[in-house]
Design goal:
Helix content: 25-40%
Shape: globular
Strand content: 15-25%
CATH superfamily of the largest domain: Metal-dependent hydrolases
Largest sheet: 9 strands, mixed
Number of strands: 25
Radius of gyration: 25 Å
CATH topology of the largest domain: TIM Barrel
């Protein structure tokens, strides 16, 4: 009886081996946060043709799959590929080619950085971004006087960190045809003692932007590739670019088709009459790596530059309400056109007045339509009576805005309005989902800072001790969902990404520490060890 039993076992083993499914890759012995509906844990998964085909214990996966390659994770922590639900991916790449003024602590430091940049680049038109007067000892807008002396013939135009204010020297103003008599709607030309300071707010910036030399095709391609490499190094596998031209979208598509660009991009089309007509006529465009099904619209400006449209005056500027950068009639016309299409409308709205108008406009034009998933980008300051609109509207929010703005936001809003600003938990409780992003390069790309700001409501210095309006902090599970499956949902992509489940793209990230368990204050120091896209490793800590 003994020998036949052995033969039977060997025969059974043979047939079980032949019944195994073939996989390209098997990952075992990991600690995997699947972020599926039950937020379950797993140890292993199998990948075929760039998609997960099995998820479970190491024993289950090895029993059911045979693979060309196997990766023993040795206890490493794995999460779904991270999604930045609101950023400026192309803008990040372009900023790498310009003077970086992020983190400057004075206007003198701004000038030094511009001088160093020009010494190296010798540009015919100096551009850059990143200054923030709120970070300076003297928290006032700069003036162009020193720039005029340093660069009397070379035009200079450098944007504030939020992109809603710009400082231009006289050479740039002259090229743009701006003088004391210039009028602008939906923006402001800042003056001091009746003279132009060089600071332009919102729509006024367009007068200078249109005369800045356009980047070449090679510069555009390099910008996209630089941004991709940087985003991969931080574990991002999908980015929602909040405002792209048709030309840039078509360039992205061509690079992806040629396998020169890999990152997945949810492209919000910069709204214009031509873009509306073209994309609505041609319909949604969708590939594995590019999804064009939404329009980006601007309602108002930014709080930091006092351009956010408020219902009552700014607390630190008498009789100033901010401004809508797009007039109400145009906004309604745009909303009606998009409502009659299959496209999504994603509107930048910061102030309570802007949010109220857009929320009511959404409700009016959508009426009884369901599952449209229209988004409020930022949803930063909401009047108490307007929160209920978010039952059907997705809040697309950026946690690091709260921890960057908390030093001065109450000065702008006062002690009462601030209670309904950056109200992420309240928005989540009403909608059931929030999509989390950074707005980079306004904020840093690093999603670990997003996670920390959402949960701890502190900056990287650990301020304030108890957290800024901590009652609006999110849990770790809510935050991870906001950076994965809920962000995917906001993009109509929850069936293909956002969690580690069979049938979805094999996009995942390996971190050096468990973001769900580590001490809260250590989260900003977590590093990305590896980023995988479509079942292929696209970034490792050794190459970052």
């Amino acid at each position: 009886m003994y020998k036949p039993l052995i033969c039977f076992v060997l025969l059974l083993s043979f047939f079980s081996c032949t019944d195994k499914q073939h996989a390209d890759y098997i990952v075992t012995n990991a600690k995997i946060y699947t972020v599926d509906e039950g937020f379950s844990m797993a140890e292993a998964f199998a990948i075929t043709n760039g998609k997960f085909v099995g998820v479970g214990t190491s024993k289950e996966i090895k029993s059911n799959f045979k693979a060309t390659k196997e990766y023993n994770a040795k206890g490493k922590i794995i999460y779904p590929g991270l999604i930045d639900a609101h950023c400026h991916f192309y803008g990040l790449g372009l900023s790498m080619q310009k003077v970086d003024l992020t983190g400057t602590k004075s206007f003198e430091e701004v000038l030094e950085k511009i001088k160093s940049f020009q010494k190296e680049k010798n540009s015919n038109f100096i551009t850059g971004r990143g200054w923030d007067q709120n970070d300076w000892k003297i928290k006032e807008y700069p003036t162009k006087d020193k720039l005029d002396r340093l660069f009397p013939k070379t035009p200079v135009a450098v944007r504030r960190i939020d992109g809603h204010a710009l400082l231009a020297n006289q050479a740039a103003l002259d090229l743009a045809g701006i003088n004391e008599k210039t009028k602008i709607k939906g923006g402001e030309i800042i003056k001091k003692n009746g003279k132009i300071t060089g600071v332009l707010i919102d729509n006024a910036m367009d007068l200078v932007s249109r005369i800045i030399p356009k980047e070449s095709k090679n510069e555009a391609i390099q910008a996209l590739k630089d941004a991709e490499r940087y985003c991969f190094s931080y574990g991002l596998t999908t980015v929602d670019d909040a405002g792209l031209s048709r030309e840039t979208i078509e360039l992205i598509d061509s690079l992806q088709l040629a396998n020169e660009l890999s990152i997945r991009i949810y492209a919000m089309v910069s709204v214009s009459e031509k873009n509306l007509e073209h994309y609505i006529e041609n319909g949604i465009f969708k590939s594995d790596r590019l999804n064009v099904r939404s329009f980006k619209v601007y309602a108002d400006g930014a709080l930091g530059s006092r351009g956010a449209a408020l219902k009552k005056p700014y607390s630190d500027r008498d009789k100033h309400f901010g401004a809508m950068v797009t007039d109400s009639e145009t906004l309604r016309k745009i909303a009606k056109a998009i409502a009659n299409s299959d496209f999504q409308m994603n509107t930048h709205a910061i102030g309570d007045s802007a949010n109220a108008f857009i929320l009511k406009t959404y409700a009016d034009v959508l009426k009884s339509q369901t599952n449209r998933r229209w988004r409020m980008e930022h949803a930063q300051i909401i009047a108490p009576s307007d929160f209920y609109y978010f039952t059907d509207i997705i809040p697309s929010i950026q946690p690091t805005h709260a921890t960057s703005d908390m030093y001065w936001a109450e000065d702008r809003l006062g002690s009462e309005r601030i209670k309904n600003a950056y109200a992420y938990k309240k928005l989540l409780e009403i909608n059931g989902k929030v999509a989390l992003g950074t707005d980079f390069p306004v904020e840093k790309v690093n999603p670990m800072l997003t996670f920390y700001a959402a949960v701890a409501r502190k900056d990287t210095k650990g301020y304030p001790d108890g957290g800024f309006e901590i009652e609006n902090g999110l849990t770790r599970e809510e935050t991870l969902k906001g950076m994965t499956i809920w962000a995917a949902y906001a993009n109509f992509e929850e069936n293909e990404k956002g969690s580690i489940e069979p049938g979805k793209f094999a996009d995942f990230v390996i971190l050096d520490k468990d973001i769900m368990k580590i001490d809260l204050d250590k989260i900003p120091d977590i590093k990305v060890k590896e980023t995988w896209l479509n079942g292929e490793r696209v970034s490792t800590a050794d190459t970052n």
